[in-house]
């Protein structure tokens, strides 16, 4: 039975997880970038095993992933699984994904959460290399366990936080914050280090950035993936007043060319 894994990734964490999982899955496996698929009016899925891998945004599902699921045309007899990567807390992100599937008459058979280095730099600095290495080691251990479950097409409980964290951070917090995501790019800016290279334009999954007079301008259709911020080669993109003194992050096994989407 063929497997297709759809992923969404801003700094490479979820792509790295998708690759690691694919290397442990039996049979033919295809990786597909959700940012590329989302351009279609409808997304027909014929494979018997389908995975969705995505980062947790404010303890819930990214808007682009929700829109992707709304476009899915699939057989309910297929085996669906989800993996949410998180930096701080996953809370009810997998349950949130499951509810999206239910709204389409589909079932999420298993769901997992995997900690990866956080990248929400407006709130905290980049994690140390030592911390990252420990997290990556645990990720690979968990991927092996997830692969065993997926290979057997087993039903598995949906991993989630406590009732309180799910209620406060996902059901209430995410639902309040997520509609505001598109306009949160108002906090982005470029400083004097900007070389007008256009990397931010090429890396944006939703074509939300244009160059105006040689400088990036955000068009208020933001996904809050922070790809433009972390992949800028000059570290010229800032988000608020604190990020100029903080580091930048992308998964060490992922290169810029792996992230680019043909426009």
From TrEMBL:
Source taxon at top rank = Archaea
Does the entry feature the keyword Transferase, yes or no?
no
Q: Which GO MF term does the entry hold, naming one?
A: FMN binding
Q: Which UniProt keywords apply?
A: 4Fe-4S, Iron, Iron-sulfur, Metal-binding
> Is Metal-binding given among the entry's keywords?
yes
Which Pfam families does this UniProt record tie to the protein?
Fer4_9, Flavodoxin_5
Q: What are the Flavodoxin-like domain coordinates in residue numbering?
A: 3-136
Transmembrane regions: none
Sequence ranges assigned to domain 4Fe-4S ferredoxin-type in this UniProt record: 185-214
Gene3D superfamilies reported in the protein's UniProt record: 3.30.70.20, 3.40.50.360
Which protein are we looking at? F420-reducing hydrogenase, subunit gamma
The record lists the lineage as:
Archaea, Methanobacteriati, Methanobacteriota, Stenosarchaea group, Candidatus Methanofastidiosia
